Structure formats: C-alpha cells, structure tokens
Amino acid sequence: MIPACEAVMNAFARRLRRTAPSSGDCHNELVTPPAHSRVNGWSLPLHSFQLIGWLVYSYMAVVAFGIYIPLLPPPWASAVYAVVGITFLFHLVAHLLAVSIDPADPSVRARKNYSLPMPVLDRKKHPHVIQNLHCHLCEVDVGSRVKHCSNCNKCIADFDHHCKWLNNCVGGKNYWCFFVTVASAALGLLVLLLLVLFIFIEAMANPALLRTSPHFDSIRENGTWLVFLPLVPLETSQAGLLVLAFATFLLALVSFLLLGHLLGFHIYLLTRNMSTYDYVVKQRHTNAPREKLETAAQSASSKSVSVQMDGLRQNPGNAVTSFPHLPKSHSQRLPGGVNADDAVFWRQGKDEWMAAQGFPRRVSGEGAPVAQNPLGSSVMKPMVDHQQQQMTLPPQELP
Fold first, then answer.
1. Residue 238 and residue 207: Cα distance in Å, rounded?
2. Does residue 53 contact residue 165 with C-beta atoms inside 8 Å?
3. Distances (CA, A) of 150 to 19, 32, 33, 147, 173
4. CA–CA separation, 348 vs 20, rounded Å?
5. Position 307 confidence tier, pLDDT thresholds 50, 70, 90
6. Which positions ≥6 away from 334 have C-beta within 8 Å?
7. Crossing angle for the helix pair 238-272 and 175-205, nearest 10 degrees?
8. Phi-psi region at 132: left, alpha or beta (left = phi > 0; alpha = psi -120 to 50)
9. CA 259: distance to chain centroid?
10. Around Cβ 214, how many Cβ atoms within 10 Å?
11. Is 166 in contact with 41 (CB distance < 8 Å)?
12. Of 149, 155, 163, 169, which residue is the catalytic one?
C-alpha cells in the first residue's frame, strides 16, 4: 500500500519520485528493506488476506455446485450450472494470472536474479529511492510512471497499488487480470445470491419443487433432504439446509458489496484515466490546503478567546466595554463633567460582574424601589425622579 513517507510527494513531478519502504521513517537516515525482492504473489510469506480469499472462493464453489444447484428443477439446473461454472472458472484463471505475473519494470526483470539481497538506502547520499529516473535500490534506470513498492521491494511499471488479497503488486502487466478477477467475482456472487435466495424461499413455501431428483423417491414421505447430488448423496434436515443457506447468503452479500464497491471505484478510475496511486496522491494534495486553513482558523479562534478571558480576569470592571452595540444617547452631564449614561452603563457592567461572582445585588440605602433594566441590570433612579418633580412643580408666588 501507499507508504506514510509519501504523503508529501509531488504527484506531477516526473523527474522526482519520493518513495520509501514502509518500514522506514521520513526522518531516518538509513532504511533497511527486506533482504530479497519478491517475485510475485506466491513468494513467501503469504498474506492472511490471500488465504482468506481462497477459502471464501472454495466455500462458495462447494455450496453452489454441491448443495444448491442440484436442488433446482432439470431445466434450470443445467442453465445455472453453465453460468456459475463459466463465471467461477473465468475468475479462477484471472486470479491465478494476477497472482503469478511479475509486474516489475522491464529493466528490473532483465536482471532475472531476485536471489541477491537488496542494498541499503543511505538517506545522506540519496534522499529518495527514485531520483532522476534512477532507482538507488534496484540500481537500474526506470520509466516515468514507475514506483518502488515497499512490500515487493522492487520497481513496478505503471504502478496502481499493492493488493493484499493477491499478495502482489498491481501494475501495467497484470492490471487487466486484476480487473477481470474483481468483475468475475462480483458477477459470480450476484448469481449465487439469487440462487440461495430462491432455494431459501422455495424450501419454506414449496419444497416439492426442490425435491424432483430421483434420489428423493425413497425418502419423499419424510422431511429428509439430500445434498451433494448426484455423486455423493448425504442426508440432512430442512433446518440445517436453511441455516446453511442463510449463512451463505450473508457471506455472499458482504463479499458482493465490498467487491462491487471496488469494481465501481476502478470503473471510475478508468473513465478518468487515473490509477489508484494517482487518485490517492491527488486527494492528499486536495485535502492538505483545507486542513491547513481549518487548523489556522481554530488556532486563531482559540487565541482570541484566550486574550479576551485574560483581559476580563485582569480588569473585571471593564466588562462594560464588551457591549459595543449599546446605544449612547445624549443626556445631561453630572457634576465633574461625567456623562450620566456613561455612569449608568459603568454601574450596570459592574453589577453584572458582581452578580456573576455570586454577590447579592445592590439595593438603595433609602429603601427606594429598584427598576429592572431591559438588559437585566438593576438601575436606581430616585435622584432623577426628584429632579423631574422639581421641574414639573408650579412656581411659588412671593409674599
């Protein structure tokens, strides 16, 4: 697969390819690859995914040809035998070819000697494995679309990706074998899904339709079923047959969804004339600026909040300055040149801060009623009311 050290590789630079074995690190001076290069997918050690793939293929072939297809009525059994047989055989041939083909660059295959140990890359002398179209590990000149695979430890022509299910690289020489392998597996699983679903429904709704084989004549009266017809008839119960059908359906469905997604992805790549490797590198270059912008925005936001909190902690009385939207109306000025509105707003901000700290709200010492400000702070206006009363009183006549 794509090594972690290639995250910063320039996908469009043909003269410079930054590659490295996955066991190394971008900051290591020496990267020690495996002792020998792998020839193909049969080279040891085998991958666990490769073994799982062959086990699933064998299981599907056994249950299809040994259990479920023989239960179909004669006209349908022959047709399904042909369709499933051709699909499974096509998949087997394509799978074997995709595993067995050596996708290495022609200059690497020209050596025809994979037994020699690979050299160690000295990062002090060569910062990249492939530089100026020359591989410093394979020690050969390579083409412009070549990548040194860290798993196979050799240069792959027209590199697409390293497939763990094949235990082999997928390159220009075996890409179409890989594509046919995926397509034939998806088609075979789809036919098998339809077959198992038909058997499951008919076994419960109309079992007589599935018991047309002459081997059922002697056991037609009881509920015994036969599998592995016609060569090795074995008896089983209807419950066992249905449980096996249900398990097979789930396994085939999961496999079909995974392979269908992979097949659709490679069809998309073919329409765009891209490889898997090109797609991954393009996605990294696309997401890198977005991630940098998100990181910068988060850093700036956290820094702004931190500065505001530090300012409030150092001078809580200036909390009123955080209300720039409050209107400032022209009003009378108090003695000393202080604006009355400024004094009220300052007092409101201070009262709000004291209330947030748990202090009780301030009440007038003369017991005057307290009016509630629309902003939620308590404002006392006995002096203003007294001045208004004096202004509204009629002038007193002199004696």
1. 10
2. yes
3. 8, 11, 7, 9, 18
4. 66
5. low
6. 340, 343
7. 150
8. left
9. 17
10. 8
11. yes
12. 163
Contacts of 72 (CB under 8 A, 6+ apart): 80, 195, 199, 210
Spell out the alpha helix ranges (H) of the chain: 48-63, 74-100, 106-109, 175-205, 238-272, 276-314, 340-356, 382-392
Q: Which residues contact 46 (CB under 8 A, 6 or more apart)?
A: 167
Return the closest-CA partner of residue 379 out of 366, 391, 361, 394.
Answer: 361
Parallel/antiparallel/unpaired status of strands 146-149 and 154-157: antiparallel
163 touches 174 (CB < 8 A): no
Q: Which residue has tokens 């002398």? A: 125
* Residue type at 325 in one-letter notation: H
d(CA 319, CA 345): 10
Give CA–CA dist 276/265, Å, rounded.
Answer: 9
Q: Average of pLDDT values for 108-132?
A: 79
In the structure encoding, which two tokens stand for residue 298, read together?
A: 């988060």
List pLDDT tens digits, range 67-111. Answer: 999 999 888 899 999 999 999 999 999 999 999 999 999 989 887
Please list the residues that pair with 170 across neighbouring strands.
161
Burial 62-96 (b: 16+ CB within 10 A, else e): ebbbebbbbbbeeeebeebeeebeebbebbeebbe
Which helix (H) or strand (E) segment holds residue 140: the answer is: strand 140-141
Whether 135 is a known active-site residue: answer no
Q: Which amino acid is at 266?
A: H
| Rg (the chain; Cα; Å) | 40
Angle at CA of residue 305, ends 353 and 359, nearest 5°:
15
For residue range 323-370, list pLDDT tens digits in order.
444 444 444 444 555 455 555 555 666 566 566 656 655 554 444 444
Q: Which residue has the tokens 């996908």?
A: 11
- Strands 30-31 and 154-157 turn out to be unpaired
CA proximity to 103, closest of 34, 191, 43? 43
pTM: 0.65
Name which of 208, 231, 189, 202 is nearest 64 in CA terms: 189
